[in-house]
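tool_log.txt
---
The assistant was asked to compare two proteins side by side. It first ran the structure predictor on the initial sequence, then on the second. Raw inputs and outputs are pasted verbatim so the downstream comparison step can read them without reformatting.
(1)
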Amino acid sequence: MSAVNTLIYPVADLDAAKKVFTTLLGAQPHTDQPYYVGYNVGGQEIALDPNGHRKGLTGGTPYWSVDDLEATLASLVEAGATVAQKATDVGGGRTVAVLADTDGNMIGLMQG
């Protein structure tokens, strides 16, 4: 497993959040779509997801890159985590899933 390389924030008002994060990060987004706004600052991906709350995200969620999403998901569930978002193909050969740890903290997994 590698380090966290993506942090996704669920947002209710994408335009308002984009203004705040563009100012905070001092950068323009590399992707600016109605379904996702993404920034890359120093190799760290920071993204805004207007559908994140509907997907079960409760706040900023770190995503860990993994080689085998299904195996990692199963081992974390066995360890006590619960699935908040089942493995989902998000396009471009990437699959993501989100779990909650035993305190409700979000853990994102990303493969591809």
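(2)
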Amino acid sequence: MTSTVLTCTSCQTKNRVPDATAGRPRCASCQAELPWLVDVDAAGFDEAIATSSLPIVVDLWAPWCGPCRMVAPELELLAAERAGKLRVVKVNVDEAPAVSARLGVQGIPTMLLFVGGAEVGRQVGALPGAALRSWIDQTLTG
């Protein structure tokens, strides 16, 4: 099982957290909830979606995509703001083309919202931070 090192926004302690796990990761030092943003490959995608008890925003992106690079800092900020309430999973479509093909993704960036392992929302194209938060909130409450 792969893992990611997450830095606590409260005390800056580095914490190793499995990419696919249920629950809410907490800092080993101060017990603050950690911003959960991980990169997964094709092998880890299904497990990451299936094991999460939190809603997940999946960002399908590529390093050469300008709009994808514009959305990335907003997703990092969102993961920090909603630590313990939302998980962000990034999938590089160049490294995991089978994931994007299976999900029917035809353009990037594409953000998918999963709850309980099922897709509940899809946003194609970059959004500014406020619009991204609004999309997530409306999709989760709708």
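---
observation on (2): The chain has four helices and seven strands. Strands lie at 3-7, 14-18, 36-39, 56-61, 87-92, 110-115, 118-124.
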